[in-house]
Amino acid sequence: MIPPHVRYLTFPDLGSACAALAAERKYVALGGGTVVVPELVRRERHADAMVELRGLVPDGVTVGEGEVEFGALATYTTVARDPRLQEAAPLLRQLAAGITGGAQLRNQATLVGSACRAIPSSDVPAALVGLDATMRVQGPSSSRDIAATDFFLGAFRTALAPGEIVRSVVVPSHPGGYGYLKFKFSESSWPIVTAAAFVRDGASPGGPRWATIGVGGLAPVPARVDLDLDGSLPTAADLNDLLAEQTSAYWSDELADGNYRRSIAGAIARRALAQAATRHQDSATDRGGE
Amino acid sequence: MTHVDPAPHRTVSCTVNGKDVQVRCRDGALLVEMIRDTLDLTGTHIGCLNGDCGVCTVRVDGQVTKSCLYLAARAEGAEVTTIEGVAEEGTLHEVQQALWNGEGFQCGFCVPGQVFCAMDLLESNTTPSDGQIRHAISGNLCRCTGYQKIVEAIHDASTRLDPTEKTATH
């Protein structure tokens, strides 16, 4: 049970909800609720009130010119079942359909909530980093954008200031190939290592093809590799070296220690990259060859 | 002397198994607590209280939901269906009947979640594969059956519910 003193508060608009969250250190924002509610039940989080975000932030997905915007309360089910996203955001659609916890969890939990909790082995943070997502943030009196690469500061820690909430996340919808892979020990397990790879034709950084890979579960914050792809793909060992260059601390928890995660991350990243490269090749063929 | 506020309460108005109810509960009451403790519908179980096991599954506005992750306050205006509401009193839904016939449960603790998730699957897919069934029930832990008999029962239920088979089975 949630401690009896905890209140449930609704506000007429987002600004006043953010103002309340800024003023009261022990108020907590309630999005999907699948993280906050059990944390309160387990007494891992101490709060005086839950601030309802329903009705104050968008719960839909907007497919725009070259980008897709996911409202803070868009559930995994909303994302997984949106046929437009097969073209516009296929990696996140696949990710959403495969979230652990069953249909019940996917009906309630959200991409944005997962990002805000910043659990190192969650699916979402590394995918957003790999996809160059932008967090649209609202505070009591102003709004700002934060790049996903700057958003995750540590395990369970983000760049949000007190009173700020993420209103939506925007992901560019480049044409290209994607690959998503997660390694976990059983169907109901948290992921151990995840890899979200994206291959695109690229002027930047300069090669004929360019890849980004966001790797989750390896370190307290998502790791990211950017690389030119000319000729053959890098091996798992190459990717392990690239990941090691930018990882100073590895994530350990009761499911797997840092050494284990470190030893498999390159292989998971390699498989996601291979999927992405194959899809990129197929889409190039569909576009009339190159 | 410290002043202690009385626990904040509210009245939640919603529909449970087709009946309008008004329930007085704590602000932080979980939907599962409202269903079991106030409405005395104890077919909805409490297991992990952590969103893992699925025994507290109900439907909220048609969506399968773990009621330990859901605040009662959020059910204001909603239509809630518990396991007691999936079939007429004294009868079984086809999924329940298939689980009964196929020994798809032993202790029965996980049954509400298995039933709701199977119903949810079969509403959109009347001929699911083993893999689709296993994915659909993946939010429900069963420590008795090893799942195989549950999967078989859901196949059986799909046959019972398939309109093309209906004349043969009813």
Structural write-up:
The complex is a heterodimer of chains A (290) and B (170). By secondary structure, chain A is α+β, with helices and mostly antiparallel strands. Chain A has helices at 14-23, 36-41, 76-80, 85-88, 90-97, 102-106, 111-117, 124-130, 148-151, 236-245, 258-286, and strands at residues 7-9, 27-30, 49-52, 61-63, 67-71, 134-138, 143-147, 152-154, 157-158, 165-172, 177-183, 193-201, 209-216, 223-228. In chain A, strand 13 and strand 14 form a beta hairpin. The mean pLDDT of chain A is 94. Chain A has eleven helices and 14 strands. In chain A, helix 10 (236-245) packs across helix 11. Chain B is an alpha+beta fold and 170 residues long. Helix content of chain B is 34%, strand content 16%. Chain B contains six helices and five strands; from the N terminus they run E-E-H-E-E-E-H-H-H-H-H. In chain B, strands 2-1-5-3-4 form a five-stranded mixed β-sheet, sandwiched between helices. Residues 166-170 of chain B have low confidence and may be disordered. The interface between A and B is medium-sized, with 30 and 38 residues.
Shape of chain B: elongated
Strand order of the largest sheet of chain A: 4-5-10-6-7
Which bin fits the share of residues in helices of chain B? 25-40%
* Shape descriptor of chain A: globular
From the alpha-carbon coordinates, what is the Rg of chain A to the nearest angstrom? 19 Å
Give the terminus-to-terminus CA distance of chain B: 70 Å
Order of helices and strands of chain B: EEHEEEHHHHH
The major pleated sheet of chain B works out as: 5 strands, mixed
Tell me the span between the first and last alpha carbons of chain A.
60 Å
- Unreliable stretches of chain A: none
Structural class of chain A: alpha+beta
What value does the average pLDDT of chain A take?
A: 94
Order of helices and strands of chain A: EHEHEEEHHHHHHEEHEEEEEEEHH
Record field, number of beta strands of chain B: 5
Instruction: Give the DSSP E fraction of chain B (strand runs of 2 or more residues).
Output: 15-25%
Oligomer: heterodimer
So how many helices of chain B?
6
